[in-house]
Design a protein that fits this description.
- The protein has about 200 residues and is an alpha+beta fold.
- It has one domain: tt1808, chain A (Alpha-Beta Complex).
- The strands form four sheets. Strands 3-6-7-8-9-10 form a six-stranded mixed sheet.
- A hairpin with a 2-residue loop joins strand 9 and strand 10.
Length: about 200
Amino acid sequence: MDHGDSDKPSGGPVGDRPATWEDIMQLPDSLGAEIVGGKIHYRAMTRARHGSTVRELGSSLPRNGSTRAPLGWWIVNDVDVSLGSGIYVKPDLTGWRKEALPELPDDWPVPIRPDWVCEVLSPTTAAYDRGAKASAYAQAGVPWYWIVDPVERTVEVLELVSGRWTICGVYTDGAQLAMPPFDDTLIEVSGLFLPLKGEQ
């Protein structure tokens, strides 16, 4: 199944009430369920292109290997996060600044708003990631949101300004630069994606 594909339809209601974390706990882990807008959305197995991009981006970011270091970032992939107001998400990549979060909690879901989130688009999730999920991140006050498109080979950097997403830049093949909030880390955009046909 592609990322976001499932034998259950996304956005399904739970009777006549909003979905809760207890509903998610009754589902198989493989569905990667989220709750946005009171509805359950399913994220299932990933394809190679998606998984490769998540891995390459995660390894390009400034993770600090020492858990005792006071500065840097906690960067994790596919972790459940509570954004409050009944919103539960599982971003492809999630980051917290260490100066604000000295220790990464082991709570499930993590009850602390991220400083940065990233979604790698798939055909079945693009509208959700750009629509309802983007709105949920804004509602929760997440400062930075990256949308990475492995088909178009782009990284879109969004900053939350006065409660609305503002596009800071859209970067594609050939770009090698520091993208906020990781201002001290050069990222080669081409290196995030599988080679094009004919490339070695």
